[in-house]
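User: Quick one: structure for sequence A, then sequence B.

Assistant: Sequence A:
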Amino acid sequence: MKIYVAHSKNFDYINNLYEPLEKCEKLKNYTFIFPHKNGQ
């Protein structure tokens, strides 16, 4: 399953949202689409 992650730009989304989602073992079967990762 693909999950598009939407959020405000007004907080540290890289460290407080993207990284925890990527590191969570329970979520390894999902594909996350991060709109602002790597300059996207």
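Sequence B:
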Amino acid sequence: MSTATAPTVSLAGKYLTVVLENEAYGIAVLKVREIIRMQKITPVPQMPGFVKGVINLRGRVIPVVDLRVKFDLKAEFAERTCIVVVQVKLPSDQTVQMGLIVDSVEEVVTLAANEIEPTPDFGAKIDTTYLLGMAKVKGQVKTLLDIDRVVAPETVQALAAAV
């Protein structure tokens, strides 16, 4: 009985909400380092399609992933398209910074435990391990992302090796 509520309690906190093809997603604020406007991305050969390449951020090379492509959404660049720089924890406990291309940034919301529900069971064929849960904010449902799992660990390691 208490095991069902324990994960939800730890999910309470502040989330940066971003938009991908008219849907809102939440990223834990503690994972977000900064938000920057789009800039020239240098391609890296032989990476998965959602890995756009790398950028130079104040002398540091940061890999960039297009979340829209990763989630099979339309990836059209607009005026509000930007890069959210996040700190991703690798399985080896090492942390790396990565850029995530999103359509736009909405706001920072503070979520209480009772506003977050577990991810629904979509069936065996749909992988929901990268979802923390679903939040109800102002009558809308926002999907909370486990940013450490959104980008597959092997992709992060391949990027880290390439950079």
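The chain has one domain: 2-162. Residues 16 and 108 are 4 Å apart (CA to CA).

User: Thanks, that's what I needed.
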